[in-house]
Amino acid sequence: MSVIKRIADCVLTILNFKPPVEALTEPPEADDVMGGYWGNAIYWDKCDMESNVYNVHGFKPFDQMPEVGWFIEAAMKTSTVWFRITSIEGCRDPHDMFFANVVPVWQEMNT
Question: Rounded distance, CA 98 to CA 108, Å?
Answer without folding.
Answer: 27
